[in-house]
């Protein structure tokens, strides 16, 4: 039994340019400010909660409270719901996702999700994009700010769900350099998907694909991809 773990944003769902604007607007609505110079890629934990806590700590010199993060989470979801209602089709399944997911079982793969997005938001995005994952083991940004922990929890949830102590092979599929780094830390094979393939290859990914439309390339890549290579500093 093999396990493939998917990220959501940019991997299963193409959210276009919505994410950054909705997140910044939610920050402004709840806290009255937004650090426009914030470079998310430099945050220690690139998850909904990890970004929020780090940016808040930098500005306010204290940790955000659970209540404050809860307000931000609610506003972020509301922004998405309103925005998608106004702009139908802005959230789309990545090309080829439906057919790829349908073929997973017959190819001997089981499925789980590990995303840095908060759970309600991740499920809204998937539903709005028409990606049906009912009953699939999930780990999200509600479980941890750390992507590595989220991925580990997804594997544990999959072990319980599929009633196995271990999988013959576990692959993480993601679209960003922080997905590469997390896979490196955990020693997991990684398959890069999406437009940022050059960044993924530079980060150490062994295999990348633009999307899931060419399944004749996807299945070998899933079987052959390796743990991302750590490049030595020069």
The SSE order reads: EEHHHEHEHEHEHEHEH
- CATH homologous superfamily identity of the largest domain: HAD superfamily/HAD-like
Radius of gyration from the CA trace? 17 Å
| Number of structurally distinct domains | 2
The backbone outline, from C-alpha atoms, is globular
CATH class of the largest domain: Alpha Beta
Q: Which structural category fits the helices and strands? A: alpha/beta
* Strand order, sheet with most strands: 5-4-1-6-7-8
Tell me the total number of β-strands.
8
The share of residues in helices is 40-55%
- How much beta, percentage-wise? 5-15%
Distance between the termini: 40 Å
Report what the structure shows:
The protein has 9 helices and 8 strands. By secondary structure, the protein is of the alpha/beta class. The chain has 2 domains: 2-15 and 91-224, HAD superfamily/HAD-like (Rossmann fold), CATH 3.40.50.1000; 18-86. Strands 5-4-1-6-7-8 form a 6-stranded parallel beta sheet, with helices on both faces. A two-stranded antiparallel ribbon has the order 2-3. Helix 3 (66-86) runs parallel beside helix 5 (119-128) and helix 6 packs across helix 7 (177-186). The longest helix is centred in the N-terminal third of the chain and has 21 residues, at 66-86. It is globular. It starts with a strand and ends in a 10-residue tail after the last helix.
